[in-house]
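Key result, reporting period 2: structure in, sequence out.
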């Protein structure tokens, strides 16, 4: 937790790091109350692959994460589609290609994040347990984790899926998730939201003892 504060100046000064967020994680597979204080994440958007390589080789932040971690997993992602904002900005700087027709055949990653309106927090967290249960049981889910910038009000879920069809089936064809989406739209739960899909093209390390993409 100390480094969550101290790493920020170093990240702000990192060449080629266009957008980043240091993120805590929850105990569940989606946005749930309660934190796992031993597990942290960094979401980063880079101008060029060389900038990422330089960060991994030279940054004291990357070195400290390697040295202090009991387990470390990282994945490189190419954006497929994105809509919405994060902190009032487009994390990808307009670099997301036009949406392709059809679903990707290989694995996909999905990031959903939201700033929840304070008056909607209770309703949001009442809806989460059922969605979390369905997500855990969903066919084609390879891994998922709840992540967040702030406790309670700024929440996200990162998930990996066997293919685009599996991700779409959960998002739009499971009754519990579809009900929540309808309530989000009808009752204006979010002050801001972002939905993004990616193609994972490189991973290393382990997540809960395995690489979910292998």
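The corresponding designed sequence is given below.
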């Amino acid at each position: 937790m100390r480094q969550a504060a101290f790493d920020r100046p170093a990240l702000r000064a990192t060449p080629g790091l266009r957008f980043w967020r240091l993120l805590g994680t929850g105990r569940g597979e989606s946005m749930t109350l309660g934190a796992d204080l031993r597990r942290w994440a960094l979401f980063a958007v880079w101008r060029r692959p060389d900038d990422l390589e330089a960060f991994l080789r030279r940054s004291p932040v990357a070195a400290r994460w390697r040295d202090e971690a009991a387990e470390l997993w990282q994945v490189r992602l190419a954006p497929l589609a994105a809509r919405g904002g994060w902190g009032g900005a487009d994390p990808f700087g307009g670099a997301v290609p036009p949406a392709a027709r059809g679903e990707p055949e290989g694995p996909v990653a999905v990031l959903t994040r939201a700033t929840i309106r304070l008056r909607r927090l209770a309703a949001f967290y009442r809806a989460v347990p059922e969605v979390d249960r369905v997500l855990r049981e969903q066919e084609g889910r390879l891994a998922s984790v709840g992540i967040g910038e702030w406790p309670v009000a700024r929440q996200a879920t990162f998930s990996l899926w066997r293919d685009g069809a599996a991700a779409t089936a959960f998002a739009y064809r499971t009754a519990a998730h579809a009900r929540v989406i309808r309530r989000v739209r009808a009752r204006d739960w979010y002050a801001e939201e972002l939905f993004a899909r990616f193609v994972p093209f490189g991973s290393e390390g382990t997540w809960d003892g395995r690489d979910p993409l292998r």
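The chain has one domain: 2-202. The helical segments are 2-12, 49-58, 60-68, 121-137, 164-173, 175-187. This case is discussed further under Risks and Mitigation.
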